[in-house]
Design a protein that fits this description.
three-stranded antiparallel sheet, alpha+beta, 2 domains, 224 residues, 3 helices, eight-stranded antiparallel sheet, elongated, Glucose Permease (Domain IIA)
């Protein structure tokens, strides 16, 4: 099995490994105390390994479609309620939010088959991602996808207290498919979904979800 690293994070991972290697080399050259050198070496290896795994893009098989909304990211469901979406949809929606901690894979994946109908990047604060005001005040991207039936699902990539970079591949008009990578968020962060009110939630508050593999909601069948 080949470990695939996010294409926008390869330099970051390389710099971490080089930095850890430099620290270990300097310790063995200038300190040469095994009681210091070997524990620090173990710590550096752990740090470099963690950063490698953090930036990996796992191979996942998605059950998402143009009506089944799959998880954008790994994490825990922290919000499941009705909410007004003020940026693009400007209507009452079903909001589902998934919080990612340090140990979750932070690669993000398209939640729905369709076409990107809206994309915007918003600079902002870096409040802790689980705080209610973070959805509006933190740095975030805003992407809406319209399916073949004209239904729109909006999701936000939300930076947290330690996240300092959001990568998003969204471009208005592009065709997207559920389960393919759409970007990555560096360190603790959150994904907010805004769905039509008649969407059926398929997760519960506090549930742990896996990107691509967990279905978040089912959109109403408008062909009936």
């Amino acid at each position: 099995m080949i470990l695939r690293i996010d294409k926008d994070s390869r330099w970051t991972v390389a710099i971490v490994w080089l930095g850890c290697a430099a620290v270990v080399s300097l310790l063995f050259i200038f300190v040469a105390n095994p009681w210091i050198c070997w524990p620090v070496t173990a710590l550096m290896l752990w740090t470099a390994g963690w950063q490698t795994l953090f930036h990996r893009v796992p191979e996942r098989f998605s059950d998402g479609s143009d009506t089944l909304v799959s998880a954008v990211a790994d994490g825990k469901v922290v919000v499941l309620e009705k909410a007004f979406e003020p940026e693009y949809l400007r209507s009452e929606c079903l909001q589902i939010s998934v919080y990612m901690d340090f140990w979750d894979v932070h690669a993000n994946f398209w939640p729905l088959d369709g076409k990107v109908s809206h994309y915007e990047y918003h600079p902002g604060k870096h409040l802790l991602a689980f705080k209610p005001k973070a959805s509006l005040e933190n740095e975030h991207t805003c992407t809406a996808i319209r399916n073949a039936a004209g239904q729109e699902v909006l999701f936000k990539q939300l930076a947290g207290g330690f996240a300092r970079r959001i990568v998003c591949y969204s471009r208005e008009g592009m065709e997207v498919k559920a389960g393919e990578q759409c970007g990555i968020i560096r360190f603790g962060s959150r994904i907010d979904y805004f769905l039509p009110l008649d969407a059926k939630p398929l997760v519960r508050l506090g549930q742990t979800v896996r990107a691509c593999e967990t279905l978040i909601a089912e959109l109403a069948n408008t062909s009936k």
